[in-house]
Amino acid sequence: MPKRLTDLERYHRSIPEKHLQEQILDAARMFGWLAFHHHDSRRQVTGRGGEKIWVGDKDAKGFPDVCMVHPKHSIAFIEVKREQGRLEPEQVEWLDALIGAGIPAVVMRPSTWTEIMGFVKGGFPEVGELLGFR
Length: 134
Hints:
Helix 3 (89-100) links the parallel strand 5 (74-80) and strand 6 (105-108). Helices cover 31% and strands 19% of the residues. Mean pLDDT is 83; it is low at 127-134. The radius of gyration is 16 Å and the shape is globular. It is of the alpha+beta class. The chain has a single domain (7-120), classed as Trna Endonuclease, Chain: A, domain 1 (3-Layer(aba) Sandwich), CATH 3.40.1350.10.
């Protein structure tokens, strides 16, 4: 028999990625970060004739969702995922490269909200210690 989810687990699963990302950006800005959301590189727009057109940089596929810079805390990258969201191989490649370069890069999910707040307050995890990575 499958494990029954707690109310908190159900709540975490209900939070859309976009909503969590907005909360992260708001919290980061509240604590003095310059925060930028990298838009999906696979985004489509509708052309004047009604045709679908891909926009964005295909080479940026997998780049973390959020880039943050703070004058006292340097730079950090965040990949935002739904509670059960999985990383794509390109996302893993980017995160591995950033961490390999000594740059804080984390995966954040609704269940890691406490860690998210600690992170934006400047309490970085050790480089390479990722929340929910893989």
